[in-house]
Amino acid sequence: MLQILSTKQLTTRFIHTGARILNKKEMAVRQASLGGVDVDLETKTNVEKLKRGIAEFYDESSGIWEDIWGDHMHHGFYDPNSTISLSDHRAAQVRMIEEALKFASVPEDPMKKPKSIVDVGCGIGGSSQYLARKYGTECTGITLSPVQAERARALAAAQGLENKVSFEVADALNQPFPDGKFDLVWSMESGEHMPEKAKFVNELARVAAPGARIIIVTWCHRNLSSSEQSLNPDENKLLDKICDAYYLPTWCSTDDYVKLLQSLSLQDIKAADWSEYVAPFWPAVIRSALTWKGITSLILSGWKTIKGAMVMPLMMKGYKKGLIKFAIITCRKPE
Amino acid sequence: MRLLTHNMLSSNIKGVTNGFPLRIEVEKVVEKSVDFNPDFLKNMLAKIEYKALVEASRIMGYAELPDHAEPSMLESDDFLRKFHHALMELHLEEGTLVCPQTGRKFPVNKGVPNMLLHEDEV
């Protein structure tokens, strides 16, 4: 499982590799973000602040996003090096869902397809609606944002899906469901918000029924090499700026997720780097923000949203440097 | 919040072993018409906690659902329609869900339950 190194061991390694020594506090933050240790009171308070920040950010920003981009609050999936027009993005966002389901080998056979689905970090319900329709079954979505939950409910009702999808304000780290409830556990671009990755993954596994598939599509940082204990200072600096604007806790790598899933004895674990398939996304979002509609909407939205918009070029920079990865990690809970 | 949703919610406050079902305190119930789907209902009977549904529907003001359900009752159109009404058509718009073990209240506003726990409850 997670190995907690002594300061002496860390120092020895760093002298040999020349990498920066993480001070005790930074090490605690990284360990805490992976969830390997009990969190102290200061970290607990920061987690509460983070959750409030996330809720407020989405309370404030969901409207403008929906206005310009629609009800899918995630990246589109694009053929590499293709030229995209604005109208293609919606189709790309739908394709992202389909590609993720395919990657995880979610069965479509009427006997084996999922009969109950949870959308963890559901936004305004884009995925929930799509999955409920696709499998003809019920889906429930959870979000920290009361504004999103209410909007999700209204949108579903407008689509005649009110009897198939439901939404609750709830915490992905403490899901209000009994064990083993869902055949498909879906987390589309919400993992990056989760402050304690181990707890997050644990909850996904807990609410998954035997045989269920778990799909995590999320932003990660690049995998560390075996000689590295952390990213280099420039990389951390870039991520810190992004974290601040998007209410993200410390990032982890795709490898970290795989290790967590392995530690829970989940099966058929698969992971991939889809960064090349999402490359057109941020430039498109930036372009949409720079339109007359984009600018006026941003001004009306509020400071949190504006800050989020200003940081978008940093996301592009992170991808270009190979620091930020768009990752998919899937697995199956044993029968 | 319809009772199908209520049937999957539980209180996961630290230390609670008996968090299901949540007790319902009603402020406003709305009845919404939903397309009747017998196949869906037949699948659902095995998956839900029937007793919790009966209790919840009574609190919501609907007393027609029989206390116990046998699989054979799925052949009865009359039962299916009552089951359908209780499970899918009764909505708690405003009210509270109460943890059966600790009494902690979770609000339901505009049909959306708020199940967020406080710092000291996790």
Describe the structure.
The complex is a heterodimer of chains A (335) and B (122). Chain A has one domain: 3-Layer(aba) Sandwich (Rossmann fold), CATH 3.40.50. With 335 residues, chain A is α/β, with parallel strands linked by helices. Chain A has a 7-stranded mixed β-sheet, with helices on both faces. In chain A, 44% of the residues are buried. In chain A, strand 4, helix 7 and strand 5 form a beta-alpha-beta unit. Helices cover 49% and strands 16% of the residues of chain A. Chain B starts with a helix and ends in a 9-residue tail after the last strand. The longest helix of chain B has 13 residues. Chain B has a single domain, classed as Single Sheet (N-terminal domain of TfIIb). Helices cover 30% and strands 20% of the residues of chain B. At the A-B interface, helix 3, strand 2, helix 6 and strand 3 of A face strand 4 of B.
Précis, in short:
Chain A: Residues 180-188 are annotated as: SAM motif II. By secondary structure, chain A is of the alpha/beta class.
Outline the fold blueprint.
The complex is a heterodimer of chains A (335) and B (122).
Chain A: H1 7-17, H2 24-34, H3 41-69, H4 88-103, E1 116-120, H5 126-135, E2 138-143, H6 146-158, E3 165-169, E4 182-188, H7 197-207, E5 208-221, H8 233-246, H9 254-263, E6 267-273, H10 275-278, H11 281-289, H12 292-301, H13 303-310, H14 312-320, E7 324-332
Parallel strand pairs in A: 1-2, 1-4, 2-3, 4-5
Antiparallel strand pairs in A: 5-7, 6-7
Helix pairs in contact in A: 3-12, 8-14, 11-14
Chain B: H1 3-6, E1 23-31, H2 38-47, H3 50-59, H4 77-89, E2 90-98, E3 105-109, E4 112-113
Antiparallel strand pairs in B: 1-2, 2-3, 3-4
